[in-house]
Amino acid sequence: MHDDKALTFVVTVHFLNTDKHDYVDFSTDGLFTERLNGTHEDVKIVMSGDVMEIEFVTDRTVSRHGYNMSVISVQMPTECICPHKGVKIMRTSGSLQMDVPGHCTVVYCKWEIPQFYDQLQFTAMFNFSSEFDSLTVTTGSDVRRFTTITGKELKRHWKRNERTEPTTVLYQRAFPANYSLDSQVASFLVKWMGSEDCFCDELSPQILEAVVGDWRELTSPAYPLPYCGDLECVYRIVAPTGHHVVLNITDFYTEPYNDVLALFDGINTTGRHMDVFYGKKRFPYLIHNENETLSLVFKTDHDVSYDGFRILFSAAPNEDFIAPLKSQLHTSVIIIFILSIMLIAAIAVAVYRRAPRLFDNPVYAGSVSYSDDTVETNPGSDVFR
């Protein structure tokens, strides 16, 4: 199943104890991989190549116990080997990601982000299901080690100050012997960006084409990093003639009330909007417009920033949208008709109950008779003269 293999050195540092000025360097094929000093136990380093070098450097001051390590050379599946030899130097803005198959028992991969004059924003997204997977991001004395056994993707944000030391990103996996490898897949993404790279063209809208059957992506500036302040980004998604735009908002988190995303049906962004979203929201439904163009305006203030948004958009024929609308309209007419009949019946019942009825609150009156021949009135009689 895994026929492609390559020669790999697996170094196990069982014990290392040196002064802070003494160190051990590891390299393959002349490319530097790692430097260890201080105190370490049971560290595994994986290096691909034909020749491995170890260099131990000490000064004349303090002496420690030194080190004890073992090295084996094995043929390892290529999908389990770091895609680059040594430490890969990255750009000052960029991203790196890696998917590690479950059958890989030991992995060691390292990157370096150079020193930069501007502040950098970092986002780490990782999905591990074992305690033997770890992602470590180090800038000088700032060490951030990310682990989880939940099997769910987690996200972390932080910032690197201006003119700091380079940042290293290290992914490690070291399963013990006889460890079950069932579904131990790991993945991670690290993205970093300077503040000058977080922007949008506020003078002209960004035009995006919606295609039937193709879900394309639209994100807030710097996503998945937090967006910047004082933005006003305008996007126009255009569907083919006879079609409309369909939105699937998969991620949305902005500062409540102050950072908003407004939707407009058409190219006019100054009139009445379809909807306005802000805060942390979930969208278990698709959003449709009626015209061929859907405009979006994203405005932020200069204060707090959150993750932003991720939107998938596509196009759909108008018939697919109008038919359900007609069906909904027909159903609505029937419901309104039934409710009207019920309302009329209720009013009729109320009026009927209020109307006076026969024998309700009867009035009793004595009988009166007049006669010219009657000259005597019986006491207690109801007859008046």
Question: Could you characterize the architecture of this molecule?
Answer:
- It comes from Necator americanus (Human hookworm).
- By secondary structure, the protein is mainly beta.
- The protein has two domains: 5-196, Jelly Rolls (Sandwich); 206-320, Spermadhesin, CUB domain (Jelly Rolls).
- Helix content is 10%, strand content 44%.
- The chain has one helix at residues 318-354; strands at residues 5-17, 23-28, 31-36, 39-48, 52-57, 66-77, 87-89, 94-100, 106-113, 120-127, 133-139, 142-146, 154-160, 167-174, 186-194, 206-209, 216-219, 232-238, 243-253, 260-265, 275-277, 287-288, 293-299, 308-317.
- The strands form six sheets. Strands 7-9-14-11-12 form a five-stranded mixed sheet, with no helix packed on it.
- Strand 11 (133-139) and strand 12 (142-146) form a beta hairpin.
- The longest helix is centred in the last third of the chain and has 37 residues, at 318-354.
CATH architecture of the largest domain, by name, is: Sandwich
Gyration radius (Cα, Å) is 39 Å
Gross morphology is elongated
What structural class is derived from the secondary structure elements? mainly beta
Report the strand count.
24
- Strand residues, percent: 35-45%
Average pLDDT works out at 85
Our count of helices gives 1
Number of domains: 2
- CATH homologous superfamily descriptor of the largest domain: Spermadhesin, CUB domain
Oligomer: single chain
List unreliable stretches of 5+ residues.
Answer: 362-385
How far apart the termini lie comes to 127 Å
